[in-house]
Amino acid sequence: MNVTEQDTARFMEAVPRAYRDPTLVRAQKIGLWVFFIGLFCWCLYDFNFSPERIWTGLERLGRVLSFMFPPHLWETWEEWLEIFTALGETIAMAFMGTLLGAIIAFPVSFLGAKNINRIFWVRQGTRRVYDVIRAFETLILALIFIRAFGLGPLAGILAIAVSEIGTFAKLFSEALENTSKKPVEGVVASGGSRLQSIRYAIMPQVLPVHLSVLLYNFESNVRSGTILGIVGAGGIGFMLSDRIAGYFWDQVWTIIFLIIGMVYIIDYLSGLIRTRVIGKWEGAR
Amino acid sequence: MTATADVTPLRPVQQFELDYVALRRRQKLGWSIAAVLFLIAFTFSAWLGDFFKVTQVTNIDGSREWRWIIPAGLPRLGDFIERTFPTIRFETFWADMGEWFWRWRIWMNLLFETILIAFMATVFGVIGGFVLSFPASRNLAPNKWVLWICRRYLEIARTVPELVFALIFVFCFSVGPMAGVLAIGLHAAGALGKLYSEVNENIDMRPLEGVKAAGGTWFDQIRYGAVPQVLPNIISYTLLRFEINVRASSIIGYVGAGGLGQEFREALSLQEYTDLSALFVIIFVTVIVIDYGSEKLRHRIIGLEKGPA
Question: What is the pTM of this model?
Fold first, then answer.
């Protein structure tokens, strides 16, 4: 069966919306596209994306990239040790920061959960506090802590810990809200107090979720912790910004490769731990 | 008679008890090993992280003494935070506010620049992520080499932090928002490419087979079979990414790549403490407004009945 011109015309008349939007919708769509493209072009002009600037930039980028191979390999053990200590510092910062954040967020998260804290205003107030904490960038927190504790990984740990309090408290209290009510009713029916119902009915449901959140945030903190050194808060970022400032591009690439390798290994290991400890259990979802 | 007593099989209950004890022992051993490993990791990280460091502090009377680093630093932290609070009296409220936000013209311009950096970086990220997400999905890749290369590229682009890209691009393209746009855009392309390709892997393959059966090429299959299915999710992820990019572009100026971050650096080095809190208020309000606005937009586009993707 072939579709003729008449068929098409007949269908266009029968179901016009399938072929063409109403004029108003079309005008809105065109307007939106014009606005976005106009804004984009204006940005190109305002940010000075001129062809010669792009060209010289690409030329320099090419020269920088040409230093990628062969990557620099340090000769003495001391130099390697320095780099590995910095990598270890980054992991330690992520580990301690995540842990401290979780330890503080755990009790606080109960205040923000609907099924545990029944007082509306206290709950809403706590939640807004979580939001404010999450609004602080880790990098800005690191700058603040450097003022108090000096340059070094301690400032990075505290920065990660504080910004994680907000994230963990939010995610933990959401996990608490997603628990099933039935075990709680069981504990209450057999004469348990509210505290006992939390301990024996809610905690077993949320702990695997919390652990999974913890591991996931640890991974992301290892990634984000690599930059804290750029402002002086310890870890591999300091080595990196130091080498970039001195134009040691071959060493920069080696460090970037090491960071990528480290993140891969951490992802792989935490995947192993996740399946080992949590399994494929999806009880409290 | 006596010979058979030795080989009498254990009663099932006894057998169960024995197995249970053995299992418990194995579990206890596993948990103790895990606990010891955890303690070692904890102590080692605490040591690497300067937790046991002792530092010298100067007392008010000028004498110096050695103290543990955390109690030594906490008063300084309190002092720092106290200084960032502006003095606002009720009688001279507007004058005080004016003094607090004294550079508001410059800050508003920079804030606008920050949002534009985020916008442009999102555009670049969406284009890059969208184009690469199809060859990076297992079900759509033309062959496994293309798949492997695209996936590794996206992984590297999102593993390296945008600030590192920014440092490199500032060297190549000189100081200014262009370096920031390229850095955040490259990072966003890596992150979005992964999310998009996960969406692509969950689509219904039958429309693509239909296009193929009608004689469509690989591009036709993607264009008419895959894109209409993934578009709502792509819009949702894009809006989420725009929020993340606004945050990223607000600090990227710290390394000279445009936006408000530069002001943070200057306020810190010039010790204009109240400027820090003013800048924080500006960024906080902006992020809240953008979060709220894009949530409304997302719900309108996707339809609330399906829920946010």
Answer: 0.83
